[in-house]
Design a protein that fits this description.
Layout lengths: L1 E6 L9 E3 L4 E6 L2 E6 L13 E3 L2 E3 L6 E3 L4 E2 L13 E5 L2 E6 L10 H11 L17
Antiparallel strand pairs: 1-10, 2-3, 3-4, 5-6, 6-7, 7-8, 9-10
The structure holds FE2/S2 (inorganic) cluster.
């Protein structure tokens, strides 16, 4: 298990901040602090810098939306996927994140990452369409 800390005072409100060498993001809202694996479900890009508006975390890349606190993809589908939550607690004024696995090194370059994704892309079976204004529930 990998543990990472950040003073709560340094955590901005309503913005996803990377922790644990970029493997997790922490989000502080009026309702508390949540942490997730730092990967958007759309194209597996980092959620670092995502903003929260009206209880919804918005990916900075293509604006997929995730309802907090669960991190559920905003979708009309009842089985909408969720971001992977990571254990987080406040300890002595610090936000503490526990990753359940040892962080693995990032794959190579962006080019290698995109090529790997392209190899598994199926044009006839695209991901579920995204409805930016839709809310789950
Ligand atoms: S990578 Fe997050 S919306 Fe595309």
């Amino acid at each position: 298990m990998a543990r990472s800390r950040l003073p709560l005072d340094e955590l901005p409100q309503n913005e996803a901040v990377a922790l644990a060498d970029g493997h997790a993001v922490v989000v502080r809202t009026d309702d508390g602090v949540r942490a997730f694996v730092n990967r958007c479900l759309h194209q597996d890009l980092p959620l670092t810098g995502a903003h929260v508006a009206d209880g919804v975390l918005i990916c900075p890349h293509h604006f997929w939306r995730y309802e907090l606190p669960e991190g559920r993809l905003c979708s009309e589908a009842e089985s909408a996927a969720c971001l992977t939550a990571v254990d987080v607690e406040i300890d002595d004024g610090d936000v503490v994140v526990d990753l359940p696995w040892p962080p693995t090194p990032e794959p190579g370059s962006l080019r290698e990452h995109l090529l790997a994704r392209a190899e598994t892309w199926n044009r006839d079976d695209p991901p579920e369409p995204h409805h930016p204004g839709a809310r789950h529930g």
